[in-house]
Amino acid sequence: MLSETIFSIQNSSDFEKIALQVFNHQYINNKTYQRFCNLLGITKNSVKKANNIPFLPIEFFKQEKIVSTPSSIKKVFSSSGTTGSITSKHYVSDLNVYEKSFRKGFHFFYGDITEYIVLALLPSYIEREGSSLIYMTEKLIQESKHTESGFYLNDTQKLVHTLQHLISQNKKVILLGVSFALLDLIENHTIKLNENVIVMETGGMKGRRKEMIRKELHETLKKGFDVSQIHSEYGMTELLSQAYATSNGIFQTPPWMKISIRNPEDPLTMLGINKTGGINIIDLANINSCSFIATQDLGKIYADHSFEVIGRFDHSDIRGCNLMAL
Fold it and tell me: Which DSSP letter does residue 63 get?
């Protein structure tokens, strides 16, 4: 099965081959994507290289049912949004693909989940239905197999006590939190962590605080937690894979995910390294929806294929999983 080969990618040649196979599958089976390609004058037969594959604007996830296997929807993930706003919906026909993606993605960057105690501080996500981040975090908490792992919604005092106890026991911990909640935590509590605790931010301010550029956010969190680095998770409703930054806000992707940068003035033209533009993502784990997405995030890529998220286009919605440029 094509969905199985995605996670066996070892090099750029593998990626190129499988990306073309996924494109052919989605061009045939995803009618929205097929119409989009046709409007650009692109057909299945005209795409010979992965660089020729067109990227579907992410807004289509708000307007259309983006599916390549329409007969068996198992789960619908939805984005956060302000009251009355139209949210994105990701129709997932095979949860096994999503679970394999986030498990293998986590292992690729951090190793065995059972080595960590997972403490989740994700208000605004856990309080609504349809969050893919909550689905992933619940599974990682379960698979960590530690009784201390869990969600800490309003009981931050208990979270602080748990952290202090785990630090005294030299346990390896991941504190995964939405940005505004981590800022609230350091403002209301004195917390001194050690090298065994990874602080990982995901998401923006959700209207709770003024948006900050990532560098400013990380400097504030590093000072508040007394740590040398803040980690980041980059994901969104429309993706079934995540990128991670282990230092300095520079993200890396798993082997089945690739970033490119488009010219903001000419979205069909790609930019080179160190050039700021719109972030395009190939996420082959999206095999049953659309793997080729033009996001509304701004960023740049570097020579080693790492990338940085700088902000968002001015006219786009503030999203829970990204930071707004000031």
Answer: H
